[in-house]
Amino acid sequence: MNTKITEILGIEFPILQGGMAWVSEHKLAAAVSNAGGAGIIAGGNAPADVIRAEIHRAKALTTKPFGLNIMLMSPNSDDLAQIAIDEKLAFVTTGAGNPGKYIEAWKSAGIKVIPVIPSVGLAKRMARAGADAVIAEGGEAGGHIGEISTMCLVPQVVDAIEIPVIAAGGIADGRGMAAAFMLGAQGVQIGTAFLAAHECQIHENYKKLVVGAKDTDSIVTGRIATTHPVRGIKTKFARAMLDLEKSGCTAEDFEVRTAGALKKAVDGNIEEGSFMCGSIAGMISREGSAEEIIREITKVAGGLLSK
Ligand code: TUI
């Protein structure tokens, strides 16, 4: 399982934990890093001080490398970018935008830079700007997504750039990991499967929705009313939001109705929560520790790849 990604990040298995806003906090990140993967604390929209405290808590739980995910639509991005430097983190992943303006400062500080990209064009720009690797995330992923599927995006990105590619979106077991490697990826990012980790602190209602989901239970909202579509569980609330945008509501209306909905989901609010997760949720059928999840995925992927 040694690849350029394990080498760059100094980890045992080429598995990055998804940077999921409100979900990826210190206990999950430390557990993934302690199990040999790359744990990640997600900044989301949280205030910078809250994230600094999360980083300190993670440092108390692991001596292994872990990273920070910066959601670039957050008003706190500048502060979080600086925190990564102050805290001498091993790596940064970014989402929902172009992190170009931060790359030089991160690289000077010795931080590995790994942007999430939804297209070949952005992958090329990131490679030119000095990124160490990219995460090619397909539309099967949870949360804010691009248009292209993982199966189509990953090989095109692999062909277009020289730096290593990490595949994301729809990968939750060893078969998915092996398939991603066949497409040319040198690592995978896994989010949805870690929602079912014992160390993941989300409300039991959220875990039950993920574990109980079947293949057709995720939908994408925000495609009509906004520029940032989001995939999550098809709850009554999510269907109501889809109806709302189909009825021709303004972007502002939609934002008002969905503001804070991810935090509500993490707190277990079935009526008003946005239970973001990937369309692979249908395959997640039980909870386990982060270590069990990583061991199982790498065992199966390793077996398939060695055949
Ligand atoms: O960022 C994500 N997933 C997320 S962020 C998030 S928080 C949120 N909450 C409510 C509404 C919207 C977001 C929940 N899930 N994944 C990585 C990702 N990045 N997916 C797509 C992109 C992306 C999109 C456009 C990356 C770059 C990009 O660039 C546009 C440009 O500036 O060129």
Question: What does this 3D model show about the protein?
Answer:
- This protein is an alpha/beta fold.
- Helices cover 43% and strands 15% of the residues.
- Helix 4 links the parallel strand 3 and strand 4 (91-95).
- The structure holds ligand TUI.
- The site of ligand TUI has 20 residues, from strand 5 and strand 7.
- Ligand TUI binds next to strand 5 and strand 7.
Provide the descriptors you would attach to this structure in a database record.
alpha/beta, 3-stranded antiparallel sheet, 43% helix, 15% strand, binds ligand TUI
Give the structure's gist in a few sentences.
With 307 residues, the chain is of the alpha/beta class. It has 14 helices and 11 strands.
CA gyration radius, whole angstroms = 18 Å
* Count of extended strands: 11
Number of helices: 14
Biggest sheet, spatial arrangement of strands: 1-9-8-6-5-4-3-2
List all distinct small molecules, including ions and cofactors, that are bound in this structure: ligand TUI
Largest sheet: 8 strands, parallel
How do the SSEs run, as a string of H and E?
HEHEHEHEHEHEEHEHEHHEEHHHH
Q: What are the SSEs and their pairings?
A:
Layout: H1 4-9, E1 15-17, H2 26-34, E2 39-42, H3 48-61, E3 66-71, H4 77-86, E4 91-95, H5 100-108, E5 112-117, H6 120-128, E6 134-137, E7 143-144, H7 150-160, E8 165-168, H8 174-182, E9 187-190, H9 192-195, H10 204-212, E10 218-221, E11 230-233, H11 236-246, H12 251-258, H13 261-266, H14 290-306
Parallel strand pairs: 1-9, 2-3, 3-4, 4-5, 5-6, 6-8, 8-9
Antiparallel strand pairs: 7-11, 10-11
Helix pairs in contact: 2-3, 8-14
Bound molecules: ligand TUI.
